[in-house]
Amino acid sequence: MTYVIYSYVTTRSPPEQMSYRNKTYVIFDGDNDMWAYARMKGWKALENIDFNFYDAHDLNPLTKQASNEQYIKQRLLERMNNAKQVIVLIGGSTKNLYRFVRWELDQALSMKLPIIAINLNNSRRIDEALCPSILKLQNCVHIAFRMRMIRHALDNFPPFFKSIKPTEKKNWYYEDKVYSDLGISN
Question: Helix count (H) and strand count (E) of the chain?
Fold first, then answer.
């Protein structure tokens, strides 16, 4: 079951909802989708682009012990404990990654963090073929990999998520009008 979020687009969100104020934990396939994570960090670095997020991966850097799975998971969990929201970049192989990606998704769900599922193929709704099964019907919002849409979701989905009843289990997405109001045509 998929449900639309009717959202109104404004030029700026209220300051208490701005994405740069809350740490965001990003989950992705480090072998195949690093390009998308790097692009998000690049958007953030450019002064003339209105995109910012407080990246939880900037906290607690990994050391030489990063080859030890238990050590890596401990450090990732420390980062996630500091996050208020999660982004998962969904690429061609994300659903097949269990060692870290599936573990990170399980942690985020158990912590009841709002999850923004970003489809790297630019699908605006859940992509049943690519979405990890653990995210289906878990009150995540599914969006296209578009900078303005990501910013909009970071600013608006976490407060919406708080209003969802715990018994609801749905796949959420933004209506096409939100994309067009943000100047996104495809």
Answer: 5, 7
pLDDT tens-place string over residues 128-171: 999 999 999 999 999 999 999 999 999 999 999 999 998 999 99
Q: Residues 6 or more apart from 93 whose CB is under 8 A from it?
A: 29, 32
The one-letter amino acid code at 150 reads I
Looking from the CA of 57 toward its CB, the CA atoms found within 13 Å total: 14
Q: Domains of the chain (ranges plus CATH)?
A: 2-181 (3.40.50.11200)
- Rounded to whole angstroms, the maximal C-alpha distance in the chain is 48
Q: Which of 106, 135, 137, 96 is nearest to 118 (CA)?
A: 135
Nearest alpha-carbon partner for 84 in 156, 4, 158, 185: 158
In order, the DSSP letters of 70-134 are HHHHHHHHHHHHT-SEEEEEE-SSGGG-IIIIIHHHHHHHHTT--EEEEETT--SS--TTTS-GG
User: Which residue, among 25, 107, 99, has the nearest Cα to 58 in the 3D structure?
Assistant: 25
Sign of CA dihedral 12, 13, 18, 19: negative
DSSP 168: -
Share of the chain above pLDDT 90, in %: 56
pLDDT computed for residue 12 by the predictor? 44
Amino acid at 93: S
